[in-house]
Amino acid sequence: MMEGFFIDSFILYALAAGIALALVVGPLGSVVVWRRMAYFGDTLAHASLLGVALAIASDQIPMAGVGLIGVSIAVLLFWLERQRDLSTDTLLGILSHSALALGLIVLSLIQSRGFNINLMTYLFGDLLAVDLPDIALMAGSVIIILLVFSRILSPLISISVNEDLARIDGIAVEKIRFIFMILLSLVIAVALKVVGILLITALLIIPAATARLFSKSPKQMVLISVLIAILAVIVGLFSSLNWDLPAGPAIVVSAAGLFFVSRVFVR
């Protein structure tokens, strides 16, 4: 009885963590697709390795380090964009690879001092090792992200349709963009245990791209992308448990499968 309860609990924890992530990657991923911000998501994901390294070095939880570095990258990018002497993709390339290289150096220094670090856990996630404190932390983060996102959704839609008209309508474009960058940084932190830092961009983009095929309005796309992300989590977790696959990659492959099937059968 105890063994069965343990298995049931660990599956439920993994499912709860995956669904919690799906609730935020759907809405924010839709904006990433609208605004063509996939490269920004990659930059945050690469930079989060530095956050993991600094958190381990300072004996803090990795999620906190990832969130802090993500917010720092968003602030730095926002400041650099205002200089207007380099394009955004150039700045993202500089920040992404510089932070990644610095993270690898910090990890190397930590390991040379005797720390045992399982890098694969942070790169590809470890969903089946999620426990109750992880769920509580993720749930709190997801609630905050969704509450803030719901307040800025309408301005984000206006900015995505036409940024110049949004300015004319009195929308504080830079402020809304900056808030969205911060939210995206927090999503990367939430995703750390589920799909890891290398696969989160895929989970942001694929459900939203799939939902676009079925949507007739932006808000409808947000809702459908959440449902598709949840379905990908369920299918991926089931595949992981039945065929002994890594859970994070299995979820992303499930999302990709839903995308290609939709492309074939939906015009």
Quick summary:
The protein is mainly alpha-helical. The chain contains eleven helices and no strands.
What does it look like?
The protein is mainly alpha-helical and 267 residues long. It has a domain at 16-198: ABC transporter involved in vitamin B12 uptake, BtuC (Orthogonal Bundle), CATH 1.10.3470. Helix content is 83%, strand content 0%. It contains eleven helices and no strands. It has helices at 2-35, 38-57, 62-81, 88-112, 119-124, 132-161, 163-168, 173-191, 196-212, 218-243, 247-265. Helix 1 (2-35) runs antiparallel to helix 8 (173-191). The longest helix is centred in the first third of the chain and has 34 residues, at 2-35. The chain is globular. The termini are far apart.
